Amino acid sequence: MAGLNCRVTVALLGVLLLGAARLSRGGETYEIALPHGSNITVLIKPGVPTLPANVCSIISKKWVTSLSIKAGETAVFSFSCRDPENHFVIEIQKNIDCMSGPCPFGKVHLQPSTSVLPTLNRTFIWDVKANKNIGLELQFSLPRLRQIRPGESCPDGVTHSISSRIGATMVRIGTFCSNGTVSRIKMQEGVKMALDLPWFLNRNVSGFSITNRSSIKRLCIIESVFEGEGSATLMSANYPDGFPEDELMTWQFIIPAHLRASVSFLHFSVSNCVKKEERVEYCIPSSTTNREVFKLQDKQPGNIAGNFNLSLQGCDQDVQNPGILRLQFQVLVQHPQDESNKTYVVDLSNERAMSLTIEQRPSKLSRKFVPGCFVCLDSRTCSTNLTLTAGSKHNISFLCDDLTRLWINAQKTISCLDHRYCHRKSYSLQVPWYIFQLPVQLHDFSWKLLVPKDSISLALVPAQKLQQHTHERVCNTSFSYLVASAVPGQDLSFGSFCSGGSIEQIQVKQNVSVTLRTFAPSFQQEASRQSLAVSFIPHFKEEGVFTVTLDTKSKVYLRTPNWDRGLPSLTSVSWNISVPQDQVACLTFLKERTGLVCQTGRAFMIIQEQWAHTEEIFSLEEEVLPKPSFRYHSFWVNISNCSPMSRKQLDLLFWVSLTPRTMVGKRRSTRAQL
């Protein structure tokens, strides 16, 4: 009874507290304490438009219409009205001096935390001062930024206003919303960043970081990343006002290899130059001239393949009549209109121990003339096959009448050099996205997985359970995995596997090669639903262990590794077969005898039910293999080979099917009655 009263009391208290919180909306007391040396200033001031002071005031030591809190100070205050967000705004400015001491690079935090601030429209300002030769880079996390004209508003109320310095003059780089393409902005000599957050948004992260860069030797560099079709509208600094005199501003565009970009100037004006000439310059790696210079009045490039830079260069202006240099332009990214003369970018700069080869498929010789089929690097060097290596970005194109005559073979090595670092680590074996962008079908993608000897083993775990390819149950999917030993001198293939089976995991003792082999162009859609993860696990002695969870719908066919050549000498493999509680498994072997004759060692098979821990041991050299038998619990099958005397090798095929326990019980009862 006491427990019941306690629960009732807690529930009533919760209701009362909730009601009190809602009723005390206007009288809530806030405390803001700014640490010494934090260089943070908080200012609460009337919003725009300003309402009469008697409508709402700040109650601190006295009733005021604004409140300033500096570093080292603590302020306790409240508001005289219930809706202060309609009357006041709060500005939090942090000054960062990178000229007299080290700069705090990395993720930028909201300080003080939004949890201690009153629910007003907030503006966080970071004013970073740096040496003229120091570059500063703002990196924005997803979603990236979208530039808007000054005076425009963002749908969610979150606005980024970014400025830079030229001496004592502030230059407005731009105003940005979320959900765009701008990922990075590089400046030098300092940066001022203002983040506006609406009062109703519960956000506690800035969404950007600051990193140190060498001098960029220009006003700024804006990076814009496209991941698919779309457009971006961008503006010169200070737009729609004039671009700073004799300055240089660059935009970097990252474009997927299968798309094309076109540039169009929406609005622009030019200044009156007395020295130099205003111009825009394109740096297009796929172009034969690389750099192309245009006037603002010229028609701008279209159908650009690959990444490119666009730079705006100002001039020395006439003092009496300077004019205004300004530019608003759009970059449109879409699928190419013209299928010929396409360039593809294969970015392997972030890859390690990887190579990608585009080569001709094997074909029958023909007496008829067959046009050449070439792969070109940088549109200059062409050959019938091309190997791209890791650590670089490659621009390729094709001179070929039929791209189905080519295919791609790729290799990647994943190494574990220190077992203390690798233990329990996991990697996803997936085909990189840039391969899918190429117009040539992937044939093989191989991962070579290397581990220290006798200290680490490997576990392969598929997203969907696998089926082993056998003559009795053929894989008819668009791709499969070939798993084989990568130990030098060891000839051991664990088999070919495809999705749609009962194998949950394949554990291998040491180095292994996993090859994704495709059989149809449709493999890309199927591969997106299937992935393979590899993890490093404690070392074990058997060459391989297969974990099998039986399916009630069909038989599961399993066979020993190296089926065509026989299990290697002195090799041991196991199958861990799980049987559902309401089912009984029937274990059947294809052959009655192996015909094996051992020169050294013994070949044997152990069947062990995991529940009873009882073992059945069979000599594979002398005894007849067991007849079909029921297994009422999960069980192990272990097969160990000897060193055979003759050419006859050990190869075993067996299958397992499930029957409901009730059906097996009825059969036994019927036999007993007979």
Characterize the structure shown.
By secondary structure, this protein is mainly beta. It has five helices and 54 strands. The strands form ten sheets. Strands 8-16-10-14-17-19-25-22-23 form a nine-stranded mixed sheet, with no helix packed on it. The two termini are 64 Å apart.
Q: Identify low-pLDDT runs.
A: 1-25
Q: Give the count of helical stretches.
A: 5
The structure class reads mainly beta
Give the distance, in angstroms, between the N- and C-terminal Cα atoms: 64 Å
Largest sheet: 9 strands, mixed
Order of neighbouring strands in the sheet with most strands: 8-16-10-14-17-19-25-22-23
Question: What is the percent of helical residues?
Answer: under 10%
Rg, rounded, reads: 35 Å
Number of strands: 54
Overall pLDDT level: 86
Strand content: over 45%
List the helices and strands and how they pair.
Blueprint: H1 2-23, E1 30-33, E2 40-46, E3 58-59, E4 63-64, E5 67-69, E6 74-79, E7 88-97, E8 106-107, E9 121-129, E10 135-140, E11 145-148, E12 159-166, E13 169-178, E14 182-188, E15 190-197, E16 208-213, E17 220-225, E18 230-235, E19 248-254, E20 260-271, E21 273-275, E22 279-283, E23 291-294, E24 304-305, E25 308-313, E26 316-317, E27 323-334, E28 343-347, E29 354-360, E30 374-377, E31 381-383, E32 386-389, E33 393-399, E34 406-415, H2 419-422, E35 426-429, H3 433-436, E36 441-450, E37 456-462, E38 466-468, E39 479-485, E40 493-499, E41 503-508, E42 512-518, H4 523-529, E43 532-538, E44 544-549, E45 556-559, E46 572-578, E47 583-589, E48 598-600, E49 604-609, E50 615-619, E51 629-631, E52 635-640, E53 643-644, E54 653-660, H5 661-673
Parallel strand pairs: 7-9, 17-19, 34-36, 44-46
Antiparallel strand pairs: 1-6, 2-5, 2-7, 3-4, 3-6, 8-16, 9-15, 10-14, 10-16, 11-13, 12-13, 12-15, 14-17, 18-27, 19-25, 20-24, 20-27, 21-26, 22-23, 22-25, 28-33, 29-32, 29-34, 30-31, 30-33, 35-43, 36-42, 37-41, 37-43, 38-40, 39-40, 39-42, 41-44, 45-54, 46-52, 47-51, 47-54, 48-53, 49-50, 49-52
